[in-house]
Write a structure and sequence with these properties.
Layout (H helix, E strand, L loop, with lengths): L5 H13 L16 H14 L3 H17 L8 E2 L4 E5 L3 E2 L4 E2 L5 E3 L4 E2 L11 E5 L3 H8 L4 E6 L2 H8 L4 E2 L4 H5 L4 E2 L1 E6 L2 E6 L5
Parallel strand pairs: 1-10, 7-8, 8-9
Antiparallel strand pairs: 2-12, 3-6, 4-5, 7-11, 11-12
Helix pairs in contact: 1-2
C-alpha cells in the first residue's frame, strides 16, 4: 500500500535513514513508541479508514495552490511618490581568487565591482501582478517582469509572456525596494533603482 503513495514512502525512508544519526554514544532502551513506528501506525490507520488517498490529494492541492498563487511579498505598496537611487554592487573578496594556473586574480580584501566584467542586461521590472495597470505597463516595456504579488502562471496563460516571482522577497530585500512598480537597470558601474508612479 505504501508504494502507491510515493510522498509518504519518501517520508518513511527518510526517517529510516535518519535513524543512524542516533547510534553515536550511549544507547538506552526506549519504552515510548518511536517516531517511525508512530508514522507507520498512523499510515495504517488512515489506510484502514480509507483516508490515506484523501490525505495525499489534500497535500497535492495545497502544493498546486502555492505554485499557482505564491505568497505575496509583505510590506510592498503601490508607489505614491517616486524615488530613485543608486546601488553599488561591489563586493569585498573574502579569500584569494585564482585563475586555472594558480595566479591571484583578486586578493583577499579586494573590492570588486562585477559590472566591470559583466553587464546587468535588460532591466528588472517589479510589479504587483494583481494590478492590471501595472501588468499592462510591464508588458509594454523591455525587461524581465518579476511579481511581488499575483499568479505568474495565470498571467502567462492570459498574455503568453513569461513572468517571474520574487520568492521570499529576496530581490526586494537586497535592493531595499518599498514600492512598485519599480525598475532596476544598469547605469555605468552602478544599478539604478526607480520606484515609479507615472506608468501610463
Amino acid at each position: 500500500m505504501i508504494k502507491r503513495y510515493p510522498f509518504l514512502a519518501f517520508l518513511l525512508s527518510t526517517s529510516i535513514e535518519a535513524k543512524t544519526f542516533a547510534d553515536i554514544g550511549h544507547s538506552f532502551d526506549i519504552a515510548e513508541e518511536s517516531f517511525l513506528t508512530m508514522i507507520q501506525r498512523r499510515v495504517q490507520q488512515a489506510t484502514s479508514a480509507g483516508k490515506l488517498e484523501g490525505m495525499e490529494e489534500d497535500i497535492k492541492k495545497r502544493v498546486k495552490e502555492r505554485v499557482l498563487n505564491p505568497l505575496p511579498v509583505e510590506g510592498i505598496e503601490k508607489t505614491q511618490e517616486e524615488r530613485s537611487y543608486y546601488f553599488d554592487p561591489s563586493i569585498t573578496v573574502e579569500s584569494d581568487i585564482r585563475d586555472h594556473k594558480g595566479a591571484i586574480i583578486h586578493a583577499k580584501g579586494t573590492k570588486v565591482n562585477p559590472l566591470k566584467t559583466f553587464s546587468w542586461g535588460i532591466p528588472l521590472l517589479l510589479i504587483d501582478g494583481s494590478d492590471s495597470e501595472q501588468v499592462s505597463w510591464a508588458l509594454a516595456q523591455t525587461g524581465k517582469v518579476v511579481l511581488v504579488k499575483g499568479s505568474p502562471i495565470e498571467l502567462y496563460r492570459k498574455t503568453g509572456r513569461r513572468f517571474y516571482f520574487d520568492q521570499g522577497g529576496k530581490i526586494i530585500e537586497k535592493f531595499q525596494i518599498h514600492h512598485v512598480p519599480a525598475r532596476i537597470s544598469q547605469d555605468g558601474l552602478n544599478l539604478l533603482i526607480q520606484e515609479l508612479k507615472e506608468i501610463k
